[in-house]
Specification:
The chain is built from 11 helices and 8 strands. The protein has about 260 residues and is an alpha/beta fold. The protein is globular. Bound molecules: 2-phosphoglycolic acid (PGA).
């Protein structure tokens, strides 16, 4: 039997949080995570101004942390940008790249996202590369073409060794923040397609973690995470409530143990 892939649950706070509420949320998540990280990995991606706070509160706790974007540059005259190396100095180990909100509102192309993934890797961060189709693209029957091209852009820039260190989050744009998750069948179908695409590049890439994101809640998490090719979740709204986030983490643990 091949070794089972570890499941991940990563929170994406987006532009939410203030010092006082972050402290309460992080304490509760770290306290609850202790009983779960024997089986799964847990992380939170926070707004960059809070990195020092998160580092102080999560150091020596069982929760990883990271940022929601990184620059394609290491340093220089790029006002407002944050380099992966800066996040790494605050103990970050994760970096979302290519979230659909960045692609849509900041016109990020798949090539730019690939460059960001490589910068993250260079600084020792694990890039969580987000990909996903819009509703119009799904309805036009182009889901596989769209997510395949988004994945290919990253795979073509990275070596096999680098690609083995990334995490991919499949997030259908129409399911993000809408309360309307993909069905388990829809999600599994795309995940299986993505895994086959990874294997096409190199057999060892079958082990890359493929997370699902888009309206994951305590109620649907275990069914999603129980699918053969779904290795956990990227959680937006529900990551802001410790009870919900921990329930989703518990679902990931339960799905792992049920295998
Ligand atoms: P959601 O967001 O869980 O609120 O749908 C997911 C994401 O955007 O990463």
């Amino acid at each position: 039997m091949s070794e089972q892939r570890v499941k991940w649950v990563v929170g994406n706070w987006k532009m939410h949080g203030r010092l006082a509420e972050n402290a309460a949320l992080l304490q509760a998540v770290a306290d609850g995570a202790g009983a779960l990280v024997d089986v799964i990995r847990i992380g939170v991606c926070v707004p960059t101004p809070y990195l020092a706070q998160v580092q102080a509160l999560l150091a020596d706790r069982p929760v990883a942390w990271g940022v929601q974007d990184v620059s394609t540059y290491t340093h220089g005259a790029y006002t407002g940008e944050v380099a992966a190396g800066m996040a790494a100095e605050f103990g970050a180990t994760l970096a979302l790249v290519g979230h659909s909100e960045r692609r849509a509102y900041h016109a990020e192309s798949s090539d730019l996202v690939a460059a960001k993934a490589r910068r993250a890797l260079e600084s020792g961060l694990t890039p969580v590369v987000c990909i996903g189709e819009t509703l119009a693209e799904r309805e036009a029957g182009t889901t596989e073409a769209v997510v395949g091209a988004q994945l290919d852009a990253v795979l073509s820039l990275l070596s096999v060794e680098e690609a083995a260190r990334i995490v991919i989050a499949y997030e259908p744009v129409w399911a993000i923040g809408t309360g309307r998750s993909a069905t388990v069948e829809q999600a599994q179908e795309v995940h299986a397609f993505l895994r086959a695409r990874l294997v096409q590049k190199e057999a060892s890439l079958a082990r890359v973690a493929l997370l699902y994101g888009g309206s994951v809640k305590p109620e649907n998490a275990q069914a999603l995470f129980g699918q053969a090719d779904i290795d956990g979740g990227l959680i937006g709204g529900a990551s802001l409530k410790s009870q919900d986030f921990l329930a989703i983490c518990a679902a990931a643990k339960a799905a792992s143990l049920a295998r």
